[in-house]
């Protein structure tokens, strides 16, 4: 066989299909960025609540510049998201689309998730340098990280705590009603602890996070409400030997970012009372690449992992597990760090994550 015969034939149809796909990719990327902007500005919510508005009327209602708004509407109309009546020059967001793009649609509001695209793009230059040097990033490199994570967690985790997540551990809700000690390790915005402190006044709640600015707004809100059963503390848990004893410890999307995930889990295991419960939520992907190919969210999750989770861990001197460290690795780590039993759960409302119940 000659060298010429070894070269596979160029498939024109395959090339054309790929090019067409990437035209779609560019357009969908543009739509994602504009959806994020529309979510943050409240435009999608306003269109859903008040259909058949002209651009002038919508601009006046929401308090934005009409000229900029018209360009945004151009993206949404040509993408097939917003309907346009050329004769009346009015716009409407169909209810079938609003069901996935407005705050009222939580936890199905995918407009929240589009914010991760802009967040990742904001560190592209820095990440390009890290690709070459192997160094990491720090939380302060991401201007809106805590804000976006808090909003994402609010609809997937916080809104479903009492009804769907806490019942994964039988009897836990009843114990919270009676009064127990609870800690959230890596609490971020602290909204989970705030909700539980409101719902279970007999229990005592503690939020720990490396960054005080992450929970500053929640702390202020709790103070304004006069909540006496909720405290937050800025603490570097990566080097802590003990932070107290608790009946319930939670960690929501926090373990894989740590400098030393196993040490973090050992700290949690030591912090549980003998009848305590550890509730962990983390990305529900697999550590085996081939098992993620059929996951419709896999490209998004790997993007978030490469742009944030992996460099954040490396920046702390960690192993860079990344968001796609896998349910398999999570289960192994929990077993290796002293948890006598581990249960893994999937919940219908949350296609992205897995939920783990560990007991000492």
TrEMBL record:
GO molecular function, one term: methyltransferase activity
Record keywords: Methyltransferase, Transferase
Name of protein: Methyltransferase type 12
Stretches assigned to the Methyltransferase domain: 177-294
CDD domains assigned to the protein according to its UniProt record, in alphabetical order: AdoMet_MTases
Record has Membrane as a keyword: no
Source organism: Litoreibacter arenae DSM 19593
SUPFAM superfamilies for this protein: S-adenosyl-L-methionine-dependent methyltransferases, Winged helix' DNA-binding domain
Positions of the S-adenosylmethionine-dependent methyltransferase Rv2258c-like winged HTH domain: 29-103
A GO BP entry: methylation
Source organism superkingdom: Bacteria
Pfam families from the UniProt entry: Methyltransf_31, WHD_Rv2258c
Keyword Cytoplasm applies: no
């Amino acid at each position: 066989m000659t060298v010429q015969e070894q070269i596979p034939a160029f498939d024109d149809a395959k090339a054309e299909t790929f090019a067409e796909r990437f035209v779609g990719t560019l357009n969908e990327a543009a739509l994602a960025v504009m959806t994020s902007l529309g979510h943050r500005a409240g435009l999608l919510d306003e269109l859903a609540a008040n259909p058949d508005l002209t651009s002038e009327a919508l601009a006046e209602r929401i308090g934005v510049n009409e000229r900029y708004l018209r360009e945004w509407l151009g993206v949404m109309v040509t993408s097939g998201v917003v309907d346009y009546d050329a004769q009346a020059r009015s716009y409407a967001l169909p209810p079938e689309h609003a069901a996935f793009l407005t705050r009222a649609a939580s936890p199905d509001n995918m407009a929240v998730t589009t914010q991760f695209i802009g967040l990742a793009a904001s560190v592209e230059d820095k990440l390009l340098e890290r690709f070459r040097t192997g160094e990491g990033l720090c939380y302060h490199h991401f201007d809106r990280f805590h804000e976006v994570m808090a909003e994402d967690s609010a609809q997937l985790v916080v809104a479903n705590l009492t009804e769907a997540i806490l019942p994964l551990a039988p009897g836990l809700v009843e114990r919270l009603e009676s009064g127990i000690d609870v800690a959230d390790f890596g609490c971020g915005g602290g909204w989970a602890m705030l909700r539980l402190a409101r719902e279970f006044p007999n229990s005592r709640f503690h939020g720990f996070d490396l960054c005080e600015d992450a929970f500053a707004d929640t702390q202020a809100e709790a103070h304004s409400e006069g909540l006496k059963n909720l405290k937050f503390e800025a603490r570097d848990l990566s080097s802590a030997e003990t932070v107290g004893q608790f009946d319930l410890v939670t960690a929501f999307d926090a373990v894989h970012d740590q400098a030393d995930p196993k040490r973090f889990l050992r700290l949690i295991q030591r912090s549980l009372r003998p009848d305590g419960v550890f509730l962990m939520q983390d990305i529900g992907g697999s550590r085996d690449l081939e098992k993620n190919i059929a996951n419709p969210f896999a490209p998004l999750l790997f993007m978030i992992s490469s742009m944030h989770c992996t460099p954040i861990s490396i920046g702390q001197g960690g192993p860079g597990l990344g968001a796609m460290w896998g349910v398999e690795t999570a289960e192994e780590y929990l077993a290796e760090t002293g948890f006598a039993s581990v249960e893994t759960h999937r919940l219908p409302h949350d296609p992205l994550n897995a939920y783990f119940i560990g007991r000492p």
